[in-house]
């Protein structure tokens, strides 16, 4: 089976490894297996690792790109909320200590022996900057008073010393990181990594599904994830017929996105609100946000990137994570599900209704933060309006059944079913700008197994 796992990028080696495009196959929304919930444990790598690449340390200053939310809108948002009191866990390649991230807290390291505040890849620092960087003349995070919980879960600058290839991180360590972040008090979790597989060969990610359900239903955490990028990272585009989700003709399954009962999946649009050429569609897409020609922080810890803007759904997701933090700070009485539903309800809807590329529409940050976003009752399922079949029983109903079963199951050996995934390394080439019809995008890394 070919598995592609990446912080939303492109790798030339992956193109050769993928070969023939996967055929579409009928799939169903994944069920959560309570017995697969990872046991609580301190963050640690899956095995012995060593660094094989140099960390990116070149300082930078602003050049090119554009703000995802303009300063006038940000000023209006900040009159209502700046995200104070919220903690956004960035589960990524780590988040470097940076003068513009004054509320950065170490969360743990699943790559090496650090504390989560080392970022050799640069990806996690950029994601965190979009969420909570202090305002400067050139750049500002959307929720600048929110705290960042830095968790390094993946890196291609490291490798397992007892395995082949380069890269550390897989769905098992992601599951562990999600549970750890929820237990550590995160109110929002951002995941800008994705594992893609052909629909005919679904990934065994039960531990991740269980961790997501635990975060939302037990710890009341909003979980925001990137939809993924087409091309070498996630392969061909899924069917893009609008009006209603279509699970029958899915070509590529993206995880954690397809756990749509528990996550808010974010696609990318350009500056005019059009779907980005690279954004991966699917029946699990909920909303979209700007993800092209983006600026963010330089991991060197001083300014913003100087090697040009980046693009990808990686950078659309933290826009929505930041909005969730703003809402939670202003309306702490709302549950995680209510926050997610509010963001969906306030989105600028496509003409034809729900759309597989942008979901319920482009996020309207002001409407979501003000009374423009409708707030459902706790019993109202977030996705019942667009998911047919048994899975539409609703998030709350599933929570009762899931955690009723979980109470009867010992989870000490729950991860044994995922042993085969423990050595699913990441493979990467150095970041470069890749020109395409949508502009430039960040060629970070991908993997095969």
TrEMBL record:
<keyword id="KW-0378">Hydrolase</keyword>
<feature type="region of interest" description="Disordered">
    <location>
        <begin position="426"/>
        <end position="449"/>
    </location>
</feature>
<dbReference type="InterPro" id="IPR023827">
    <property type="entry name" value="Peptidase_S8_Asp-AS"/>
</dbReference>
<keyword id="KW-0732">Signal</keyword>
<keyword id="KW-1133">Transmembrane helix</keyword>
<dbReference type="InterPro" id="IPR022398">
    <property type="entry name" value="Peptidase_S8_His-AS"/>
</dbReference>
<keyword id="KW-0645">Protease</keyword>
<dbReference type="InterPro" id="IPR023828">
    <property type="entry name" value="Peptidase_S8_Ser-AS"/>
</dbReference>
<comment type="similarity">
    <text>Belongs to the peptidase S8 family.</text>
</comment>
<dbReference type="Pfam" id="PF00082">
    <property type="entry name" value="Peptidase_S8"/>
</dbReference>
<keyword id="KW-0720">Serine protease</keyword>
<dbReference type="InterPro" id="IPR036852">
    <property type="entry name" value="Peptidase_S8/S53_dom_sf"/>
</dbReference>
<feature type="compositionally biased region" description="Basic and acidic residues">
    <location>
        <begin position="439"/>
        <end position="449"/>
    </location>
</feature>
<dbReference type="GO" id="GO:0006508">
    <property type="term" value="P:proteolysis"/>
</dbReference>
<feature type="active site" description="Charge relay system">
    <location>
        <position position="92"/>
    </location>
</feature>
<feature type="signal peptide">
    <location>
        <begin position="1"/>
        <end position="26"/>
    </location>
</feature>
<keyword id="KW-0472">Membrane</keyword>
<dbReference type="GO" id="GO:0005886">
    <property type="term" value="C:plasma membrane"/>
</dbReference>
<feature type="active site" description="Charge relay system">
    <location>
        <position position="123"/>
    </location>
</feature>
<feature type="domain" description="Peptidase S8/S53">
    <location>
        <begin position="83"/>
        <end position="361"/>
    </location>
</feature>
<dbReference type="InterPro" id="IPR015500">
    <property type="entry name" value="Peptidase_S8_subtilisin-rel"/>
</dbReference>
<keyword id="KW-0812">Transmembrane</keyword>
<feature type="region of interest" description="Disordered">
    <location>
        <begin position="33"/>
        <end position="66"/>
    </location>
</feature>
<feature type="transmembrane region" description="Helical">
    <location>
        <begin position="400"/>
        <end position="422"/>
    </location>
</feature>
<dbReference type="InterPro" id="IPR000209">
    <property type="entry name" value="Peptidase_S8/S53_dom"/>
</dbReference>
<feature type="active site" description="Charge relay system">
    <location>
        <position position="314"/>
    </location>
</feature>
<dbReference type="InterPro" id="IPR050131">
    <property type="entry name" value="Peptidase_S8_subtilisin-like"/>
</dbReference>
<dbReference type="InterPro" id="IPR023834">
    <property type="entry name" value="T7SS_pept_S8A_mycosin"/>
</dbReference>
<feature type="compositionally biased region" description="Pro residues">
    <location>
        <begin position="39"/>
        <end position="48"/>
    </location>
</feature>
<feature type="region of interest" description="Disordered">
    <location>
        <begin position="373"/>
        <end position="396"/>
    </location>
</feature>
<keyword id="KW-1003">Cell membrane</keyword>
<dbReference type="GO" id="GO:0004252">
    <property type="term" value="F:serine-type endopeptidase activity"/>
</dbReference>
<protein>
    <submittedName>
        <fullName>Membrane-anchored mycosin</fullName>
    </submittedName>
</protein>
């Amino acid at each position: 089976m070919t598995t592609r796992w990446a912080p939303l990028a492109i790798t030339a080696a992956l193109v050769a490894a993928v070969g023939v495009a996967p055929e579409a196959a009928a799939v169903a929304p994944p069920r959560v297996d309570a017995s697969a919930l990872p046991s609580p444990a301190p963050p640690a790598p899956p095995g012995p690792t060593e660094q094989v690449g140099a960390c990116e340390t070149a300082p930078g200053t602003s050049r090119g790109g554009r703000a995802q939310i303009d300063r006038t809108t940000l000023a209006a948002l900040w009159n209502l909320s700046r995200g104070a009191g919220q903690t956004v866990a960035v589960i990524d390649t780590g988040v470097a200590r940076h003068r513009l991230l004054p509320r950065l807290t170490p969360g743990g390291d699943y790559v090496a022996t650090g504390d989560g505040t080392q970022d050799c890849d640069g990806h996690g620092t950029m994601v965190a900057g979009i969420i909570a960087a202090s305002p400067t003349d050139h750049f500002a995070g959307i929720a600048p008073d929110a705290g960042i919980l830095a968790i390094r879960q993946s890196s291609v600058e490291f490798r397992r010393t007892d395995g082949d290839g380069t890269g550390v991180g897989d769905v098992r360590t992601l599951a562990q990181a999600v549970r750890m972040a929820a237990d550590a008090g995160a109110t929002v979790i951002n995941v800008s990594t994705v594992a893609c597989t052909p629909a005919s060969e679904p990934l065994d990610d039960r531990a991740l599904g269980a961790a997501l359900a635990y975060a939302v239903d037990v710890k009341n955490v909003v979980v925001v994830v990137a939809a993924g990028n087409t091309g070498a990272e996630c392969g061909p585009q899924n069917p893009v017929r609008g009006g209603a989700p279509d699970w029958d003709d899915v070509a590529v399954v993206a995880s954690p996105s397809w756990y749509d009962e528990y996550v808010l999946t974010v696609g990318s649009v350009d500056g005019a609100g059009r779907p980005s050429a690279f954004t991966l569609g699917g029946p699990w897409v909920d909303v979209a946000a700007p993800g092209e020609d983006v600026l963010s922080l330089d991991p060197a810890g001083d300014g913003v990137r100087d090697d040009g803007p980046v693009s990808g759904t990686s950078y659309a997701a933290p826009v929505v994570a930041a909005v969730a933090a703003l809402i939670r700070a202003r309306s702490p009485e709302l549950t995680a599900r209510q926050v997610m539903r509010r963001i969906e309800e306030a989105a600028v809807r496509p003409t034809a209704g729900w759309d597989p590329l942008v979901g319920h529409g482009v996020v309207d940050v002001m409407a979501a933060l003000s009374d423009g976003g409708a707030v459902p009752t706790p019993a109202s399922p977030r996705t019942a309006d667009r998911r047919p079949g048994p899975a539409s029983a609703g998030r709350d109903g599933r929570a009762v059944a899931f955690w009723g079963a979980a109470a009867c199951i010992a989870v000490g050996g729950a991860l044994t079913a995922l042993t085969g995934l423990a050595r699913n390394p990441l493979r990467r080439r150095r970041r470069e700008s890749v020109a395409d019809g949508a502009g430039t995008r960040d060629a970070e890394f991908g993997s095969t197994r």
